[in-house]
Amino acid sequence: MKKLSIRLSIVLTVALTTLLGIFTIWIINVRTAELHRVMLEKGVTAAVSGAQTVGSTLDEVVDNGLFTVQQVFDHTLKPILMPEKVLNGYKGIDPKTIATVQMYHYVSGLDSHLENILLPLQESYMIDPQFAYAVLVDVNGYVPVHNKRYNNMPTGDFNKDRAMSRSKRVYNDEIGLKASTFVSGSYLQQIYVRDTGEKMWDITAPVYVKGRHWGAFRVGFSMAETEKATADLRNKLMVVMSVLLLVCILIVWAMTEYMMKPLDRLHDGVQRVATGDLSFRQNVKANDEIGDLARAFDKMSEDLAKYLKDLAETIRAKERIQSEVMVAKEIQTSMMPRIFPAFPERKEFDIRAIIEPAKEMGGDMYDFFFVNKDKLYFMIADVSGKGIPAALYMVITKTLLKNQALQGLSPDKILANVSGILYPDNEKCMFATAFCGILDIRTGEIEFSNAGHNPPVIVRGNGTCEMLRVQPGFPLSILPEVTYYLDKTRLKAGDTLFMYTDGITEERNKQGELFGNGRLIETLSRMEGEQVFPMIKKVRAAVSEFSSGNPQSDDITILALKYSG
């Protein structure tokens, strides 16, 4: 194989190896994260459901008069000495270590009742081989009954008893105490090293009896099994990618050899090509194809060479610019949420959006995300101008807005801070209008602030529509220091907050008339009970019908939020 073909093959092979390597690492990371997420969801579901079942059961115990509330919450423990036969088998074991397997029971007698109701419940989770344990603990970390595999009577073999006789023990280690006293959320995830040395994922949910914290329900996954599953996945992917890489390398080398053959036919006919016979097909062999090409084509017409060179450069530059614009557009679009429904697990609301730039790239934007489990931040904005400058300014503005929102600030503070950051370096005097708000999904209350943006429309559940009353405010980056008004409103179940940019209301028909706020409200008033996505599509269709085929004059963006209560 000639020098050029060898160099080309090596370059292509290195590039292909690098790309496949990066892709393989990305796939492994994505699949590993997905595996961990699925296991966490399974553990959380098990812990929460177990805690709720135990809490309901103990509520019934009290309601049925089997025990009083005081007896249920009597966590006093009374030591029970190990049988002499068992202790004789523990000779040579430190007393403090022996104490770790000491057995206890409740003086109230609640243990015997819990043993009857807990064991079937706990064992129902152990059917899944991924669970290492599923147990109830009280606030002191006491385990009245463990799973069957760990519920054996002491035998005198200390190592066996420590691993397999886990009932009637107090787990007062740091992890155990955090689990048994946890009340600050729905679940707690910890890394737990058992006294047997086994490393676990421990997931805990608090147990409440008659509204009071009684203890916790804990489930565990073996991290060794998790890592084994991850390693198996990684190994399979590496084998597949290695085989694919080998096949691709063989194809690259074969194709390079085949495509370089025409260069071998250049030598004998190079003079005829230099005289202008461009239709001639070469059939030569040479040791240095690049040298032969240089000597032959130096004799060609300087004007023709210059023309071909300039033409090729022009075409490449145009294609490169177009390609870069398309990549930039994809990057810009990917910065905004595009997967709907965005939060399928949240039934309290639905939020949808569309964005249609007037050119390849635009200055409109929207965003939404949770700043905490109950507060949804959302915003819509419009940068002055169109095209690449507006798109660049949009990216900067959106990033700053998100950064400020994630700090837990109110909408007025978010807008004020971003405007202050943008103003000093705004030599081109660009600006952006914006409307942002924070929805409390528990109550439907919205805190909002406006920076010169079009006021949203509230579409009530009964079909009535009204413009939201907002203070106009200055657009972002106009002044060095701006104070924005913080207002509030409340959505009732079935209400929709319809937000848009001026590409909707300022769209013109062939007579030069604006679509306007009146037509927008009239269109929305016909959508009683409509879901958000059909509502967005119908408004967009109404605007298109109104413009009667006129070219889109401005970026169009719609963001609609429906509150279900």
Walk me through the structure.
Helices cover 44% and strands 20% of the residues. With 565 residues, the chain is an alpha+beta fold. The strands form five sheets. A five-stranded antiparallel β-sheet has the order 9-18-17-14-15. Helix 1 (3-63) packs antiparallel against helix 5 (110-126), helix 1 packs antiparallel against helix 8 and helix 12 (387-405) crosses helix 13. The mean pLDDT is 83.
List keywords for this structure.
single chain; alpha+beta; five-stranded antiparallel sheet; 44% helix
Describe the secondary structure blueprint for this structure.
Blueprint: H1 3-63, H2 69-72, E1 77-80, H3 84-88, H4 95-99, E2 103-106, H5 110-126, E3 131-138, E4 142-143, H6 158-164, E5 169-170, H7 174-180, E6 188-193, E7 199-209, E8 212-222, H8 223-260, H9 270-274, H10 289-297, H11 302-334, E9 349-356, E10 364-372, E11 375-383, H12 387-405, H13 411-422, E12 432-440, E13 445-451, E14 457-459, E15 465-467, E16 487-490, E17 496-500, H14 502-505, H15 516-524, H16 532-547, E18 556-563
Antiparallel strand pairs: 1-2, 3-8, 4-5, 6-7, 7-8, 9-18, 10-11, 11-12, 12-13, 13-16, 14-15, 14-17, 17-18
